[in-house]
Amino acid sequence: MLSIFIAAFTARLLAFLQATKAQQYVDKNIDAPDLSVVTLPPDIEYFTYARDKWLPSDPQIISEGLYAIAVVLSFSRIAYILPANESFGPLQISLGRTVKDIFKFMVLFIMVFLAFMIGMFILYSYYLGAKVNPAFTTVEESFKTLFWSIFGLSEVTSVVLKYDHKFIENIGYVLYGIYNVTMVVVLLNMLIAMINSSYQEIEVPSDTEKVNLQPGVIQTQDDSDVEWKFARSKLWLSYFDDGKTLPPPFSLVPSPKSFIYFFLRIIRLLTCRRRSLQKDMEIGMGNSKSRVGANKNCG
Q1: Would you put residue 253 in left (φ > 0), alpha (ψ -120 to 50) or beta?
Q2: Angle of helix 88-124 relative to helix 139-149, nearest 10 degrees?
Q3: What is the pLDDT of residue 119?
Q4: pTM
Q5: Cis bond before residue 256 (omega within 30° of 0)
Q6: N or C: which end of the chain has fewer CB within 10 A?
Q7: Helix axis angle, 188-203 relative to 223-238, nearest 10°?
Q8: What is the sign, positive or negative, of the torsion defined by CA atoms of 163, 164, 165, 170?
C-alpha cells in the first residue's frame, strides 16, 4: 500500500516537472499573450489541451488512478486492529476463512469463465458491426458481457445478429444459456454453501468440543471465542516487539532513540572486544606459565 502511495506521488511529481518545463519554455520563448495564435512544439502544445485530449499514459492520470487504489487499500488497515474488539474480532476471523474459500473457488470459476469467453468471442468475432450490440465481438466486450451477466446486468439480445444466420444465433443462445446456468445456478450457489460451511465451523461449536465445569454441568466451547482470543493475543504480542518509533515514511528520519541505540551498540562492541583481548592475554599467560613449569621439570 505504501509503495502505491509513493508511485502515485512520483507520477504526480513527474507531471508537475513536465508542466514546469513547458511553462519555462513558454516564458522564455513566447511573448504573445494568447497561446492559441502561436505555433508551439507538439510536446509543449500538449500541456494546453483539455483533459479529454490527454494521453492514456499521462502521469497525472496514472497518479490519480494509483492514488484512488491506495486510498481504498488504506482503509483495509483498520482490519489489523479489529481483533482487539470482542464483537468485530470473531466476525473478521469468519470473513478471513470465507476469503480462503473464495480463492479456492476462483480456480474453477476462472476455468469456466475463460472457456465461455473465448468460445463466444470466436463465434461472434466475424460479426463486428453486424450485431444488435457489440457484445462478444472483441475479447474485451466478451469479458465485460460475461462478467456482468453474473449479476444479471447483461441482456439476452447480446447474442442476436442483424443477419439471418440462425445457426450461429442459436448456438449463441445455447452457449449463453449454459454459461448462465453453470455460473449463476451451480457455481455461485456452491460458493455460498462453502462460505456458509466455513462460517459454521467457527461460529457454531461442535459436539466434541465441550468443557466440564462441574459434575453434571457441560458447557460448549465456542469456536469463535477461542479463535478470537488467539488472534487478540497475537495482536498484543506484536506490540511487545521493539519496533520503529515513527511510522513510515517518517521512520527514514533518525530519531533520538536510534542515536542512543547506535552509541549503545558501539559501547557493546568495544566492551566485547576488550573482553576478548583480556581472554586472549589470559590464555597466552597460562600457556607461558605451563612452558616454564615444563622446563623446570626437565631441568
Answers
A1: beta
A2: 130
A3: 92
A4: 0.59
A5: no
A6: C
A7: 80
A8: positive
